[in-house]
Design brief:
Glutaredoxin; two-stranded antiparallel ribbon; seven-stranded mixed beta sheet; 5 helices; alpha+beta; 31% helix; 213 residues; globular; 9 strands
C-alpha cells in the first residue's frame, strides 16, 4: 500500500525536472508563480501541506549529524547537488546564495539543505571546497553520506541520483520549499535559471506566515 501511494505521488508530480549534468535545460515541471508564491509552483493535492521527510545525515561543513527536525520553526529549502557537476549544480548554488543575499538580515531566519546525489565523490573535503568556491553562508548545509544512508532521502523527495562513473547521466534539479511548520509548501523546477529575487519573496511569504501564527 505504501509503495502504491508513493507511485501515485510520483505520478502526481507530473514532469519531474531532470537535468543532465552537462545541460541546464528544463525537461518539464510546474513552472513558477502559483498565486501564493512568485518562483515556486503549487504542489499536487496530497503533497501540499504534507510533513516534509525528515533527514538525519552528515553536514559536510561540520562533519556532524544534522537532523532536519531541528530546523522546525523556520522555513528552509531542500535541493540535490553533486560537487563534480559542471553547470546545473553551480547555477543552483549561486541562485540560492543570491536568494539569501536578497533577504538581507532575514536570511538568518531560513536555511538551505543540499543533499548529495553522488556519495562516491562528495566527500566532506570536496564539499567544503565547493562551499568555499560558491561563497555559501553558514546556513547552507550540504548533507553527505553513503549510498545506503542517502537513498531514503532521494526516494522521499523523488530525486534521481547521479549514476556513478557516467558523466552523461542525469540528476534531479529541483528546489523544495518547506514552511516553518516543517511542511511541503512549494517546488521550483531548477533545470533552468530562476529569479533569486522571486525565491527570496517566496521565503518572505513563508516567514510572514510563521509570524502570523
Amino acid at each position: 500500500m505504501r509503495r502504491a501511494l508513493a507511485l501515485v505521488m510520483l505520478l502526481a508530480l507530473g514532469a519531474l525536472v531532470v537535468a543532465g549534468c552537462g545541460s541546464s535545460e528544463d525537461s518539464g515541471g510546474e513552472g513558477g508563480g502559483s498565486g501564493r508564491f512568485e518562483a515556486a509552483g503549487t504542489l499536487p493535492e496530497g503533497l501540499a501541506g504534507r510533513a516534509a521527510p525528515r533527514m538525519v545525515l552528515t553536514d559536510a561543513r561540520s562533519e556532524q549529524p544534522l537532523d532536519t527536525a531541528t530546523l522546525r520553526g523556520r522555513p528552509y529549502l531542500v535541493t540535490f547537488l553533486f560537487t563534480n557537476c559542471p553547470d546545473v549544480c553551480p547555477l543552483i548554488g549561486q541562485e540560492l546564495r543570491q536568494s539569501l543575499e536578497e533577504l538581507g538580515p532575514q536570511a538568518r531566519e531560513v536555511a538551505v539543505v543540499a543533499v548529495s546525489v553522488d556519495p562516491r565523490h562528495d566527500t566532506a573535503e570536496a564539499v567544503r571546497t565547493w562551499l568555499r568556491r560558491q561563497r555559501q553562508p553558514e546556513n547552507f548545509h550540504y548533507l553527505i553520506g553513503s549510498e545506503q544512508q542517502l537513498a531514503p532521502a532521494w526516494r522521499a523527495f523523488y530525486a534521481a541520483p547521479q549514476v556513478a562513473g557516467n558523466p552523461d547521466s542525469a540528476h534531479t534539479a529541483v528546489v523544495w520549499l518547506i514552511d516553518a511548520q516543517g511542511r511541503l509548501a512549494g517546488k521550483i523546477s531548477a533545470g533552468q535559471a530562476f529569479d533569486p529575487a522571486a525565491l527570496a519573496a517566496d521565503l518572505r511569504t513563508l516567514l510572514s506566515e510563521r509570524d502570523d501564527r
